Amino acid sequence: MLIYNTTFHVEGENNLSPFLTYMRDVYVPAAIRDGLLQNPRFVRLLTEVGDNLFGYALMCEVEDVKILKKWKLETGRTLESNFHQQFGEKVLMFSTSMKDVTEKVVGSE
Predict the structure, then answer these.
(1) Radius of gyration of the chain (CA)
(2) CB neighbours of 96 closer than 8 A, spacing ≥ 6?
(3) Cβ within 8 Å of residue 4, ≥6 positions away
């Protein structure tokens, strides 16, 4: 199981409400619609990301790299393009793929 994380940096308080509405009504439902990404968690970053910037992240689980590549081709590209059309440079986004290695460092006594 992999974790696919997309981090968002929202510029200014006046962009927060439109961003949060878009994420709730458009982005997250579209991201998980085909079932390839699962268990979405949308979180607010508590660390400061810059002056007048607000950080959020969407974390989803995905079975493996092959399925993630399929999602990126079939859904991710369009979703990202639509997002950029909606927000331009008012919201920056970047994605990271991660592998959970908890079992290798926790409980291995």
Answers:
(1) 15
(2) 4, 5, 6, 7
(3) 37, 59, 60, 61, 62, 68, 71, 95, 96, 97, 98
In DSSP terms, 32 is beta-bridged to none
SS (H, E, C) the chain: CEEEEEEEEEECHHHHHHHHHHHHHHHHHHHHCCCCCEEEEEEECCCCCCCCEEEEEEEEEECCHHHHHHHHHHHHHHHHHHHHHHHCCCEEEEEEEEECCHHHHCCCC
- What pLDDT sits at residue 68? 97
pTM here is: 0.89
CB neighbours (10 Å) of residue 79? 19
